[in-house]
Every structure is written in structure tokens, then in C-alpha cells.
Fold each of these.
Amino acid sequence: MSLIRRISTSITSSVDRAVSKVENHDAIINAALRDTQQAAARSRVRLERVRKDGHSLKTRHSNLLLAISRWTERATSIGATDEATALECLRRRKDCEMQLQNLELSIEKHEELESRIAEQVKKIEVRIGEVSQQRNMMRSRQSVAEAMRTINNIEGVSYGEIEDTFDRWEINLGETEILMGANSPSAPLDRAFLAEEDMAELRAELCVLLKQYEEKPS
């Protein structure tokens, strides 16, 4: 197997294994994040419903206070002239007071529940932020690990093999450049000038030889 193929195969298989592991880890984390985010969204909706119910309870509480005040005023206003009606007003006031007492217990329990749910939603949202941040950090570390693994695979090849590869690369490029130059439109003209220049050099050399022969003593 050639050097380039060995390097390519080694790097590709290593990266494929690393990417496969990253994708599996990412899929697990992303699925967990997605489920947690959906749970957080449902919790926020339910929290809003609980708060709405709490608002309704407090509105009812205010109405009962107003009703108690109203029945008290009515009983007071007619107590001297209509005892039976005044007593009925007090009976209804007492009924409102009982409702108010029960309602206050419900409001207290409701506020505790609302506070507990709000705290849980807050914890979920904080955890989502932590998991997202940790996932991003792990992705960064994995990218660095992949880069280092690739470098180690390349560095595992001997220096001589790398130099031989560059030499063969240089030869291939040189042959291609020469071939492209031979096919250049200006090549015939270059050859014509070179032929004339060679002929001129030969003539000059012949003249020198003839002159030396003539000057040679007989």
C-alpha cells in the first residue's frame, strides 16, 4: 500500500471512529437536553396555572372579607327594628367567616405548593444551562483530541517517507509543467530562435577553427 494511501486510510479510520463516538455522545446529551427542556416547559405552564389558581383564591378571599363586612353592617343597621333579619345576617356572616377560615388554610397550602414548584422549575432551568455549557466544553475538547490524533498519525510516518513523497510530488509537477510548456503556442517560435542561435554558435566555432588552421605554420 502506498504511503499516501496508508496515511489517508489511517487518518480516515481514526477520525471516523472519533466522529462516531462524538455523534453517539452528542445524541445522548441532546436527547437528555431536549427531554429536560420539554419537562421545564411543561413545568412552567403548570406553574402559571397554579399561580392563576392562587390569584383566584386571593380574589375569593377579598370577596369574603367584603361579604363579612357587608353582613355586619346590615345586622347592625336593622338590629333594633328587625331582630329576625339581623340574626339571619349574622348567621350568613358566620358562614362567610367559616369559608374564610377554610380558604386561608387552602391559600397557605397553595402558596407552599407554588413556591415549591417555582423552586423546582428554577433548578431545572439552571441544570439545563449547566448541561448545555458542559456539552459545549466537551465538544471543544473532542475537536482538540481529534486534531491531536490526526497529528500523531501523521507524525508516526518516518521523515524519509515524507521527503520521498514530496520528491515524487515535485517530479510529477515538474513533468506536468514541462508538458504544458511544450504544448504552449509559443513553442514553435522558441524552437526556431534556438535553432538559429545554435547555428550561429556553430559558425563562430568553425571560423575559429579555420583561423587557427590558417595561422598554423606550414
Note: The two ends are 73 Å apart (CA to CA).
Amino acid sequence: MGVSDIGRGAILEWEGELWSVEDYTHMKKAQRRPVAQCKLRNIKTGKVLPMNFIDNDPFKVVHMEGRKLQYLFKDGSLYTFMDIETYDQLSLNEEQLGDLKQYLKNNMEVQGLFYNDEFVKVDAPNSVELQVSKTDPGVRGDTVSNVMKPATLETGLQVKVPLFIKAGDWIKVDTRSGEYVERVNR
């Protein structure tokens, strides 16, 4: 495998362990070999590691099997999901989920990723709709364009939202960046 096969979200087998590529930058300088600068997350332990790969480094891009899962509940540090076809309950811990835990709502459908029939990761949708549970009211006179204020969502996630958003509104949040996308009518 070459560094051009790596991308954000890819799963690598490196040094006998599975790693998820959280961030990726491809660099090619004049008369030098291409380098992939990555931020890797160990799928089992959740440990984050910065790493640079060149073309002859011993890694393998792994292809995972995807299955539809439904998020059920959190018990301590374990998050439990149900396979929609078999009704099997599967769990991951907080470290394995990473930042995704801030976007999970009960009964939410997600894509579960399996490697050799072992549940290893949850792939989040690109955006989720969450309700604003707390935010300060917009102040009259704050009319400078793109003025943002902090808001706390139903899952505890904090994002910056426009002034017109109030508690009880539903908004769409990008799970890749954690940023406000738009208000949703419900």
C-alpha cells in the first residue's frame, strides 16, 4: 500500500493493531518521496498518535464490513448498540467512540464497522439533528454579521450558534467538524 491509499476515516493495520485515521495531510516536496501526515486513533484503546508514513512503510489499509446498528443506552463508560438484523447487543467504551459519543441519541441508527466479525468502530453520519437545551438569548443590537453565541445541546455537546437560535430549537450539527450547519424545522 502507498500513502495515496490513506485518507481520513480509513482503517489501517499497523504494528499488529487497528488504527483509524482521524486527520490526514498528503505532502510532496520537490525531489522527495510523498509523506502522509496522520493523526491515528487506536481502535481498541482510543489512544491518539501523530504519525508520518512514507511509501515503503509496513501498513495495510483494512476494509471493514458495515452493518446497521441502533444506539440503545450508556451504562457507565460502555455504550450499547443493537444489530438491527440479528438483535445482538454490542458495546464499545468511551475511548473507542472518541468524539462520536457527543452526537449519540437513544434509538439513533449508525453504521457499525466489523473486522473479522469483531465489532470495532461506529461510523457516524455526516450530520445529526439535536435540540438546543440551553443558550443565552440574543441581545438586541448585536447585528454584526455572523455573530455566534454558545449553546448546549441535548447530548451535552457545546457549539456556537447564530443569535436567532433559542432553547428548544432543533439544529443540524456537522459530526466531522462539530459546527452548526442550520436550523431544522420540526
Note: Residues 65-123 form a domain with the OB fold (Dihydrolipoamide Acetyltransferase, E2P) fold (CATH 2.40.50.140).
Amino acid sequence: MKGTGNFQLYFLGILPPKDLQDEVTDIKKDFSNRFKAKHALKSPPHITLYMPFKWEEKQFNGLSDSLQLFTENRSSFSVGLNGFEAFPPRVIFIQIENSEQLNKLHSELLDWLSKKLGIYDQREWGRPYSPHLTVAHKDLKRGNFIIAWEEYKDKAFVNSFLVESFVLLHHLNGKWEPCQEFFFGNK
């Protein structure tokens, strides 16, 4: 969105239910305490739908209204979590099981954001969608990555949850905070 006003940083993601968020946050805290990787604690556990983007503050209602319109004819679906995976040498995450519904939601959201709101980032379009729940990244040093990955690579983590909405997260005071939730119209 072009303009001269006050721009804010946002991203779109799916938040698991509170109990699952707490469980994943405990894992993030383990990475922070034992492996000195605290950056992942700056956001709630989430599956990213669209990477951070800037939006003019005075145009927030237009963004909100458009995202609400996007969700009106969406239906809920289940997402499975199964084990840990990594993007060496810094990222460890909980693996999301392949979901046709999640992939479709992501693809249609990219198209909507581009056509309806002018939000377009070549990086989003130029790579395959790899949904995951990050537990450590950026500040996980290579040496600690090797130690942590050796411990977590075979660790069990199996869960699932119903996706009934997605959230707009706002970057405030160095952290990502949920600012608005968009519920699917046809649960």
C-alpha cells in the first residue's frame, strides 16, 4: 500500500488453541533457556499465512474489512502436527502434516492480498509453501543448533487442531501481538 502516512508492520497467521500454544511456548522457553535462542518467543506460536508487510495505519479499516470479506465463505478444517523438522543451520520447528485445505487457503489468500489490497511480495510467490510452527530461529547459533537438533530430531510431538480463523498480528514494542481475528463464515 503506497502512501505518506504512518506505516505499521503486520503479518497473517493461524494460532493454535490456547492449550497447544502453551505447550509450544514451553518448548520455545526450553530453547531460550538451554540453547540461548529466545527470538521465537517474540511471537505467539503460529503457522504463517503471509509474511510481514507494511500497511498504512489510516487505511487499517480497509485492510480489516477486506480480510473479513475473504473469510466469509471459508470453512473450518483440521491441521495435524507430527514431529520436529529443521531448516539447518538455524531453524527448528514442529512439522505440519500436508493439508490440502491449508495449502488452498494460503494460495487463495496470496491471490486476494495481491488483487484486492495490492499486497505483493515476490518472495511469497517464488517459493513453495512450507507451513510449520517455529520453536527456534535467527538467534540459534550453529553449535547450539547441532546439539538441539540431535535432541529434538527424534522427539515425538503429535497433535491436531481445528482451524476456524486466522489472525492479523501487529509488531509492537519488538514483539508480535494478535490484533484482530478473522473467523471463517462456514464453520
Note: The chain has a mean pLDDT of 94.
